[in-house]
């Protein structure tokens, strides 16, 4: 559902179904949040907007290394599935 395709009345109905706001409160919050009914509901539920964390160069480097190693291991495991019967025989 896209914000542009909904009328103010439809947005108010959605907000009233998801919150305990009255019609007037819904209209007030819609004007405060530029007509975004999703943000009105999130504000009611106490969901804070995500803030992008500023990362240092080292954090980004290690993130990329972890991502590459994880994707390599997933690819290897998909190509070479582990046979559990062989593992049990080797251990026992």
Give an overview of the whole structure.
The chain has helices at about 10-20, 25-30, 35-45, 55-80, 85-90. The chain is mostly helical and about 90 residues long. It has a domain at about 5-45. α1 (about 10-20) crosses α2 and α1 runs parallel beside α3 (about 35-45).
Assembly state of the chains shown? single chain
Q: Approximately how much beta-strand content do the residues carry?
A: under 5%
Cα-based radius of gyration, to the nearest Å: 25 Å
The level of helicity is 55-70%
Secondary-structure element order, as H and E? HHHHH
Q: Describe the global form.
A: elongated
Tally of individual helices? 5
Please outline the major beta sheet: none
Low-confidence stretches: none
Q: SS-based structural class?
A: mainly alpha
Overall average pLDDT: 88
Span of the ends, CA to CA: 57 Å
Number of strands: 0
Which structural traits does this protein have?
92 residues, 66% helix
Describe what is shown at a glance.
By secondary structure, the protein is an all-alpha fold. Helix content is 66%, strand content 0%.
């Amino acid at each position: 559902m896209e914000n542009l395709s909904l009328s103010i009345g439809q947005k108010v109905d959605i907000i009233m179904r998801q919150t305990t706001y009255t019609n007037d409160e819904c209209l007030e919050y819609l004007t405060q949040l530029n007509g975004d009914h999703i943000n009105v509901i999130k504000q009611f539920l106490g969901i804070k907007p995500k803030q992008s964390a500023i990362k240092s160069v080292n954090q980004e480097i290690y993130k990329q290394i972890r991502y590459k190693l994880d994707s390599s291991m997933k690819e290897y495991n998909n190509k070479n599935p582990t046979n559990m019967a062989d593992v049990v025989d080797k251990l026992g």
